[in-house]
């Protein structure tokens, strides 16, 4: 029902825009440095872009059809279609933008609430369709009881996923906030300090690595069982999708952003719009592109290890550990 409500709600909103209404619509260029609080003249837009209007209506109808098939004809094909719908919604939502824009908005930076609201709605839709895919697929047995140690390779990738945003993002941004031109020119440093208040700079510097610490839950006991000090939930098993879906969403967003950014970067070098002299002068900003890509890959591999370790097994499937897993001492 929730997936159907999302799909029909999106269709209704786009039809409202096509009929001339503009509530919730934004005409802001997300890459422009302008005040987005007024929607950038959304009320003066007479013709909607295709993907904001009829294209989105078509996608919404397709999503509704998937929901109907999931109710009437559950199986692998419908589960695959639901996973594809979830991935599409999450890629379009680009939740990595939210990771930086929401803290900046909370600290007082002008933000486009229409764009943020639309992205949050798409993220919610992606999560809902991921849940639909999980329930539409083949039935498995119950999840493994107790704590299941993850493989060693999963732990190594998890530590990389924690270290990358600290070393590659928090350290350089923290230095820039403090006025240190680490890996950038004095002009770039002046532009950064001009556009960012101290509160906003601290928010976008500290929030990503702090959120990144949650990846440790994918390789620790508290990622599978709630700690005993949690009221009402202590000792109970953590719902598998509660860990897999958010981590998968962020990993997909990071990899997408990294790949697209590197592609744009290479194209600018190829066409001469970005000279190598500027790349060397501001090497720290260019390196963040690889940081995002590596962060996404390491988080994605860690999530895969967690998902494989905690996956429900069919009754005929033996409950054996994955190769390279670390068994607790009580089982040795």
From TrEMBL:
The keyword Transit peptide does not apply. Residues 309-332 are annotated as: Disordered. It comes from the Bacteria. Keywords: Membrane, Transmembrane, Transmembrane helix. The chain crosses the membrane at residues 51-73, 80-100, 120-137, 157-180, 200-220, 241-266, 286-308. The keyword Nucleus does not apply. Signal peptide: none annotated. This is Uncharacterized protein.
């Amino acid at each position: 029902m929730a997936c159907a409500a999302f799909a029909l709600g999106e269709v209704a909103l786009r039809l409202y825009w096509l009929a001339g209404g503009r509530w919730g619509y934004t005409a802001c260029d997300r890459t422009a440095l302008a005040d987005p609080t007024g929607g950038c003249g959304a009320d003066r837009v007479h013709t909607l872009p295709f993907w904001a209007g009829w294209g989105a209506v078509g996608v919404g109808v397709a999503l509704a059809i998937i929901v109907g098939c999931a109710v009437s004809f559950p199986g692998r094909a419908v589960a695959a279609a639901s996973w594809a719908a979830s991935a599409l919604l999450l890629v379009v939502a680009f939740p990595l933008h939210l990771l930086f824009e929401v803290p900046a908005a909370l600290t007082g930076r002008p933000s486009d609430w229409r764009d943020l609201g639309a992205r949050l709605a798409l993220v919610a839709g992606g999560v809902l369709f991921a849940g639909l895919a999980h329930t539409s697929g083949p039935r498995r047995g119950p999840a493994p009881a107790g704590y299941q140690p993850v493989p060693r390779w999963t732990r190594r990738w998890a530590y990389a996923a924690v270290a990358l945003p600290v070393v590659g993002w928090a350290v350089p941004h923290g230095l820039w906030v403090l006025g240190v031109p680490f890996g950038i020119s004095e002009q770039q440093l002046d532009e950064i300090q001009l556009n960012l208040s101290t509160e906003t700079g601290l928010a976008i510097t500290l929030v990503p690595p702090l959120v990144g610490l949650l990846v440790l839950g994918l390789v620790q006991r508290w990622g599978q069982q709630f700690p005993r000090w949690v009221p009402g939930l202590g000792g109970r098993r953590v719902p598998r999708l509660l860990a897999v879906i958010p981590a998968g969403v962020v990993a997909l967003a990071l990899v997408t952003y990294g790949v697209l950014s590197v592609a744009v970067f290479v194209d600018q070098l190829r066409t001469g719009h970005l000279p190598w002299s500027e790349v060397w002068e501001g090497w720290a900003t260019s390196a963040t592109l690889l940081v995002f890509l590596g962060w996404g890959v390491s988080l994605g591999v860690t999530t895969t290890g967690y998902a494989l370790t905690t996956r429900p097994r069919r009754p005929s499937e033996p409950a054996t550990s994955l190769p390279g897993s670390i068994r607790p001492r009580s089982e040795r």
